[in-house]
Amino acid sequence: MRARGERLKGLRPVGGLNPLDPQGGWFVLLAVTLFALGVLSNWWLIERPRGFMVGEPAPVTYRIRTSWLRGLGVKDVMLGTAKVLLESPEDVLSPRLLGLIMSMDGPRRGRIITSSAAVVEMAAAGRLDLSDRRSVEAAIWSMVDRLQMDQGDKNVVFQVVLEVVESAESAGSVGSVIAYEGQMINDGLARLLMSEGYRDRSFPWKRFAWSLLAVMAWSAMSWSLFSRSTGGRDDMKPRQWCFVLSVVILCWGVQLVLSFWLMDLMFPAALASWLFLTLPVAPAFGLSLGWGIVGAIICFVYFPPLAAVQVVQAVLSSGLGYVLLKGSTSRLSLLGRLVSYFALIAVASIFVRWGFGAPMDMNLFLTYGVLSLLWPSLILALLPLWERLFGVISPLMLMELSHPSSALLKRLQLEAPGTYHHCLTVGTIAEEAAERLGLEGLLVRAGAYYHDIGKLRRPKFFIENQVGENVHDGLSPSLSALVILSHVKDGLEMADQYGLPDFVKDFISEHHGTTCLAYFYRKAKSMGEDVPIEQFSYPGPPPQSRETALVMLADSVEAAAKSMGSKLDDPSELEGMVEEVIKSKLDSHQLDQVDFTIQDMRIIRDSFVKTLRSMRHTRAVRPV
Asked: 3-state class of 531 per DSSP?
């Protein structure tokens, strides 16, 4: 007996880093190219026209944008203003003072401006108590009073310095001007602008190189981690990779443009929610975490506080996505989970901002509150688009497929009621086992509901739809086998006709694997027919994923349970029947491509037995 966790025959490794194949190389090249084009376009169209350069006039008016500098930077503002005062006093002084100074003769005007700039620099180097206006005025006057000039000029210098200090004091409020359009940018102003997240005009070679290396490394690593080519449902297929790349480019492309204005719209959370709602858990977790962190650093490398906010969003959204965004069984439940998901991430973002000393105001709370309500609606609204473009599977698609009003399910109800009841029962049995194994129960149920739709072509040839006469009694074994085997091919044709997604076709083609119709084969042999066993076997392939394997087992167990009759009430008989079905599939190599462990098989057996017993409950009828 194999130990707990030991893999069955045919197992392929589930984790680990695999070499990059040619498809992976093209994916990495495409990812790097798109990110490079995005960074280049953003610099050329957004950053370069609005960027500053030391020693050149400001192309636009720069203002405080985020309140991160409130109560900080007064010294830098005063030093920067002192230099501007020497170069272009008209950019600093009020019209009243400027008119007064400009009315003076040249030498006197020069002395006043030079002296004012010197006193401003002295005040910036000292310690002014800005909360007490009287002490500020006294400190400024004590500096001005030491100047060698007449009393009238001292009064003018005092007014100039006081105006500069008051302007610097209010410079930390949102909307206050750091530098006017056309104003010469000096080193002090450049430091202030960079601390506010503004960018200079030069090409960001360091960020460009880092972005390319980060995107190249993570895209190669993610492909190696999640494209294993083992045929399991956790494997990422080419269309899924196209979806991932499209969503990443969409989210981070928009965020890169908005990052110039330091706008945080919680794109890491949006990215993670789309990935968790459409991909298996393992790839969704790894991709949302990795791309979230890489994108946050690329977008906000010039403003570390917001980079930290979005890195926290990426980490938290990956963890919360695993907990909250899987297992929803209704649209209302999914919407509620998405609102809770974004609300929790918004609270964490506010907490990180508070940790960095950013002021908390009502606009901030209102912005995150609105985003927490808007994003869930947008996420759900775009899911059908992703489904159509990339063939991804979302909870909304599974809910629609599983609803009794679906066109094919309604046909099953009316034209093949026995098959319809059989599919519902198989779905119930398989879904319960899937949830115990940590698989997506809703997907397994949807696949089980459609696995036998091919029987709609000839419903009376299948025993569950027969009443009284069995049509096979008048047919040769070979013809009976041909009709029964054809329900797989018919099912695939109907799936194409009704536009069912590819994963449903997997359930249709794999739920019988390559098993043989033993009854008709033995009957043909007993009649002396020399026929190959392949003529009585399904075309396959055998199950390639745990989900389709579960439906195969549930399908066989449900059929066997019907033939047991009253023996099904005996727990030992029921458990023996389930074990015999599982053993027959193992012995016929139908599960060789599936990575079930011995422990998994025990869980499946126990789940099947429990579900079948609950379906066979009886009620004692007592005489009235």
From this structure: coil
Q: What is the dihedral of CA 175, 179, 183, 187, to 10 degrees?
A: -170
Identify the helix (H) or strand (E) that includes residue 62: strand 62-63
* Confidence (pLDDT) at 624: 53
User: CB count, 10 Å around CB of 359?
Assistant: 16
How far is 508 from 233, CA to CA, in rounded Å? 15
Q: Look up residue 163 and give its amino acid.
A: E
Is the Cα dihedral 467, 470, 471, 474 positive or negative? negative
Kindly state the tokens that stand for 152. 């009238």
387-442 per-position pLDDT tens digit: 989 989 999 899 999 999 999 999 999 999 999 999 999 999 999 999 999 888 99
**Phi, psi (rounded to 5 degrees) for 124:** -65, -35
- The pLDDT mean for the chain works out to 84
Quote the tokens at residue 164.
Answer: 């500069």
Q: What is the largest CA-CA distance in the chain?
A: 131
Confidence of residue 618 (pLDDT cuts 50, 70, 90): low
**Where does residue 584 rank: exposed (0-12), middle (13-18), buried (19+ CB within 10 A)?**
middle
Contact 300, 307 (CB under 8 A): yes
Read off the pTM: 0.75
9 burial class (0-12, 13-18, 19+ CB within 10 angstroms)?
exposed
For 563, counting Cβ atoms within 10 Å of its Cβ (0-12 exposed, 13-18 middle, 19+ buried), the class is exposed
Sign of torsion, CA 14 20 23 24?
A: positive
Q: Residue 440 — φ and ψ, nearest 5°? A: -85, 100
3-state secondary structure of 281: helix
